[in-house]
## 1
Amino acid sequence: MEERELRTLIGAVKAGTLSRRRFVQMMIGLGLTAPMAAQMLASAGVAQAQTKWTFNPTKRGGGGLVKALWWQAPTLLNPHFATGTKDQDAARIFYEPLAGFDPDGSVVPILAARIRAAKQKRLRREIL
């Protein structure tokens, strides 16, 4: 591929008539690596900037990005196949349980409307 043809392709990406993905695919077809093709676009000033987050929550905790940090990364996001607390904690982002436990070991409703006192005592005995 000649330099003139390459400049034409980069111009098409700048104009928006050719997608960055298609450009990278074409360069890979020519034997270049994807990072090299991306570097060519970046050096030509076509590096795609991240979009600005426009959502403004109306109340505290009302939307936005979820950021979570674990010492060890979860391997599953299915609570039924969780092999440890790291997997169960990660699964709670997607699957809300009916109830959970507070630091005292008492059962607290999450999705459940309420928990009967007798059932709460029995559950507490089982875990202790």
## 2
Amino acid sequence: MPAIEWLRFRAVEIGWGAFALANLAAMVRWESWETVPFHFIWVSLTLVYGFRVWRLPPMLATLGAVGVATGVLILVDVRHGAQEWGELFEVPLMSAMFLAMVWHARRRQQALRAVERLADERASLLERQQRFIHDASHELRTPVTIARGHLDVLQRTTRNSQEIEVALDELARIEHILGRLLLLAKADHPDFVTWSEIDVEPFLEDVFLRWTAAAQRPWRLGALAEGTLRADPEALRNALDALLENAVKHTGVHDAIELSAVAGGRDIAISVSDQGCGIPQDAVERIFERFARADSARTRAEGGVGLGLAIVDAIAKAHDGRCSVETSEQGSTFVLRLPGFEPAPVLPQPLELLASPSPS
């Protein structure tokens, strides 16, 4: 069994060896035409090495054997008068060309190994970061929940509880951040998305109504595409909440926010538009990165920690979609494009039979 495996692994080298021996025999048989099999041997050796890249000792041994064998046959033909003395220079020339190719092939192999090593290191680092975020979020949730419970009890027994309300608000903020960290930590897992059919119009109307009650803004519900979308409803709701929350943070009480959805074939584009201050152009390319913020000078209440849009980007990619933004000083529009949309069937309009009054 090991011998069969070795033969399979070395099938290319064995095949080249048989090809080289056949061409050496041709050099012996047809002395005046020996330059043709001679070049076949060297060219095939170069091609085989380019694909296999042998270790240095076998490569040097093969090069020496081919050089000696072809050189001796040419020398014999020169003595017989079948070839010119100048043909002998072909051997060192072909050897030099082969060694140049060996140098390039080995450099390419080293570069590929360096790239693979770097990719493995980055993958390992990303995995450790995700594990740390996941574990840290779980560990922090327990003391936050306990502290929140004690503060709730203390608030019910204390009259002047302004400080307690501030502490509860901060704990709620921490819980919100921890939830988003856990969501990001699970975003790259294959089971992150749970697919189901979503009726788009009532789904978006529900999201819209929740936010109209949560923030005082001139809310607008634009045109909504009718049909079903194959997606994860919980993940999609999280993405829309993050976009709407971002719009609220970057608008005033008199700035309008609009939610709409337009179908385009099998895709749907869900848009969140606002009349806020816009996003600086130098920050547009990085706002979807984790912990990125469009304006580092914003207050903590306004700016957040830069997880919302990263969650939107992760959810969009998990659905094979994408999120883009168009911004100006008059406001911003975030567009969440997702595949898997099925338009609602167009029902035929009933024909109304108008009966004219009969003459009296």
## 3
Amino acid sequence: MESLFKAWKTSRKIYLNFFDSYSLNQLNKIPSDFNNNLIWNIGHVIVAQQSLIYKCSSLPMYIPEDLLIQYRPGTKPSGPVSQSEAEQLKELLIDLVSKTEADFQKGIFAAVTYIERTVVTGFHLASIEDAFEFNNYHEGLHLGYMMSLKKFV
């Protein structure tokens, strides 16, 4: 798990760099032939992680319900993200890794039964370990998508 958390932290730092490299307008821009933007992808990986790790463990998530609704799978941007929401997402990118790692170290995931599921890409998640592995894969997919997207903003 140590290497998994290390990879996750590295990934999240790359996501965080988008806030320093692009203006809020650029983060919000949806280029033609795309259905989302850079900031939506950031919000989406935050929500997906909370859902995969906490919700499927029947544990309370660290995100507000409105973020879950706005960035869950199957959604797309409904309008531009405000500066305050961008700041919230920026903070959550790093804070949630620390909280999740601390919760893992405390053993809270060992005391729950993971709710098995098969995600839309066909991966079957049968355990919390599967969820952590898939989360890193999922975040890598979206990071790749963002690398393509950034060329058009």
## 4
Amino acid sequence: MRLYNLLKLLSKDHEITLYSFIRNESERELVSRLSFLKSIHLFYRGHVWQPKYLFRALTSDMPLLLSSYENQAMKQAIAKDATEHHYDILHLEPFYVWPSIPERVQIPIVVAEHNIEYEVYQAYARQTPIPFIESILKNDVQKIKKYEEFVWKKANSIITVSDHDASIPGCVTDKKKIAVVPNGVDTTYFSFQKKKVDNRQLKFLFTGNFLWMPNMKAVEILVKDIWPGILKQFPKAQLTIVGKHLPKHMKNSFDALHISYQAFVDDIRKEYHQHDILLAPMTISGGTKFKVLEAFASGCLVLTTKEGIEGIDAKEGVMYLRSDTPASYISNIQMLVEHSKRFEQITKQARRLIEEKYSWDAIAEKQSSVWKQSV
């Protein structure tokens, strides 16, 4: 969503050539939606869990995250293109596509980071209960950190999505070349809808792709630790989980717990409008959470953790409610049920925040400024 919206708006003032990885041939059908780009070049990338990538990660200094991003065909195509045409900027999004960048291309480099990757994997490694696996993960984290810092030092400019993320590369390279360009929301596409909370039929929502470790960890906590307590307090409450790649074993208890699951929905806006509260018990920080921004824009009240709100300039108790323990989720929900005006006030303030700070038009202007300063 970030890349699509930024490219669409930036193409009004810039000529953009896109080099992108795809994982299956059906993705080529999406090219028709990118007519605003000058040209598009697609290259196949295999899934990372293959013997050749695992072997390389275990026997070299290349981390598993980067091992599947080295594509000789892409590297050669970029080198040829850069020789035949004039480009002002080579923009990498994010850093781990670096293995497919030609070594001798003399173009100012801008690196945009969605997260500080090694921090995300570091947090996941700490929460892994099996010592042997934890040891392997920690070793790979050090490799990621090494490569990430290497690319930061090579870059002319670095874009992060939050102040916290900006502080990390600032420890190893020039702080002056780091800019914050946050994630955002299409404020026209995501319309605000006022809700009336009914404690007899509370509707809760969780969204996320479960191949992303922070989402997987959060949904496990939600289903095992938080939701049973909510259901005990509010027996008619319903929880909807939306997102691809949820493990099958998690679905076994869903019927008994009043949980419905959809891997894919045609229009996520309907989910935000049809549910009262977004539950986002994130325990791994990094970047900013689109689910939180979209809920803010739509009028769906957000209960989340310190990690879940990180990178979003939202005031606790004014634009969202912080919940770090199962008991705090229940107490916050109880308060909202008893004080419906508070629900209305919080959702209105959250929408106002989106309009003032997180519209894609304003965010695209920030990125355009970074590009111009990097030439």
